[in-house]
Design a protein that fits this description.
mainly alpha, globular
Length: about 240
């Protein structure tokens, strides 16, 4: 079971992610959308969406540092274990709480606003369940680890090394055997969420409008009302029916 969960399932998840994304891009171009419901309700959306997106941005950055940066690197940089964990817990807790609060508001909005509820797909229910579950499990693991209820488990000497071994196709699944249950469930929910990305509205994360950062400015000029009166009328074939 350990070999399947920690040595096979991660690759299955990534394969579903890649295959689903390619299929969606080729055969479901017009379905590649966030399916925005802003027109139905905007007050709760203005609160929940920024909380969730900015919170998740810092959560992902924290996971990248915690999983991909070896412990030897931070030791060489002069960052002690106590300082590292204090920094990771403080920033991670704030980002996690913000993201969890944001997704909570968005879920409440979908359940309580009739028009938004009618626009909700079955895939949305599944996506929200795993997304909220992964976040709550991550916060639970952080709290348990910070309060000493995991017997001093250091994920940087277990989960992080196992995660990096996946990139060399030599997964050391034995390292996950000693991980606390909350950490294991958090990882399983995370990889399941990866597999669901191309089959849900989460696919829009691959379409971030980065080109807007580099596009030229759009210049708007106010037209003189007097010029409108002097403007000649359009000819028949130029009129819009």
């Amino acid at each position: 079971m350990d070999l399947f969960l920690w040595g096979v399932l991660p690759y299955v998840s990534v394969a579903l992610l890649i295959a689903g994304t390619v299929w969606r891009a080729r055969f479901d171009t017009f379905g590649w959308t966030t399916r925005s419901t802003q027109l139905h309700e905007s007050r709760l959306l203005r609160i929940g969406s920024p909380l969730f997106h900015f919170g998740m941005l810092f959560v992902v950055l924290g996971h990248v540092v915690g999983l991909l940066v070896p412990k030897s690197w931070t030791d060489a940089a002069g960052l002690s274990d106590h300082a590292y964990h204090l920094l990771a817990v403080s920033t991670g807790a704030v980002a996690g709480i913000a993201a969890a609060a944001g997704i909570g508001i968005l879920v409440y909005r979908r359940l309580r606003v009739p028009a938004v509820r009618r626009a909700t797909l079955r895939s949305d229910h599944l996506m929200y369940a795993f997304l909220l579950g992964a976040m709550l499990l991550g916060l639970t693991a952080t709290v348990l680890n910070s309060t000493g209820m995991t017997n001093g488990y250091d994920y940087r000497e277990g989960i992080s090394i196992w995660f990096r071994s996946l990139f060399t196709f030599t997964p050391d699944h034995h390292l996950m055997a000693g991980a606390p249950l909350a950490f294991k469930l958090h990882v399983l929910f995370g990889f399941t969420l990866f597999a669901l990305i191309p089959y849900s509205r989460l696919v829009h994360m691959f379409s971030a409008p980065l080109k807007y950062l580099f596009r030229p400015y759009v210049v708007y000029r106010r037209r003189d009302p007097g010029q409108l009166a002097e403007r000649p009328g359009r000819r028949g074939w130029e009129r819009v029916s």
